[in-house]
Amino acid sequence: MSEQRENLTYSLFGDAVRELAQAVADDGYEPDIVLSIARGGLFVAGGLGYALDVKNLHVMNVEFYTGVGATLAMPVMLPPVPNVVDLSQKKVLVADDVADTGKTLKLVHDFCAGHVADVRCAVIYEKPQSLVKCEYVWKRTDRWINFPWSVLPPVRKSGEPITPSKEALP
């Protein structure tokens, strides 16, 4: 992986999602469902849903990355896992922010494969080592990506007590 980083801004993200949606439309693919891989894929799926006029959005929670360059041994589906009957015989567009190793996308793609009419993947970024070669990619890179929603630390770590910021106090 390159030491340099891709820096995606919210403004550039809007352009990227719109161009990604245009690639899907230009290909003639009309998904019945956009299946988001949470968390980063939520933003992509929402944008694709609007741009492609698809109101049927689903979410699959998958944990894999635990930090910058740090992962679990294998991705794990977290509850609630979508019911395959909701996907049955549908054309599904799987949306995520990045296909890095491709392990998360492969898990979700394989989950769908035996139950849906067609499954395709759309990502903002795809890295050369990805196990899954996505049908729709905005940009290919070998760099670490700074996404606008994850570049800053959380305002509160999960499990910490909630204390209002000084700005929020009356």
TrEMBL record:
Spans through the membrane: none
Highest taxon in the source lineage: Bacteria
Domain (Phosphoribosyltransferase) ranges: 13-151
InterPro entries, sorted: PRTase-like, PRTase_dom
Keywords, ordered alphabetically: Glycosyltransferase, Transferase
Pfam families (alphabetical): Pribosyltran
Matches recorded under SUPFAM superfamilies: PRTase-like
GO molecular function (one): glycosyltransferase activity
Name the record gives this protein: Phosphoribosyltransferase
Lineage: Bacteria, Bacillati, Actinomycetota, Actinomycetes, Kitasatosporales
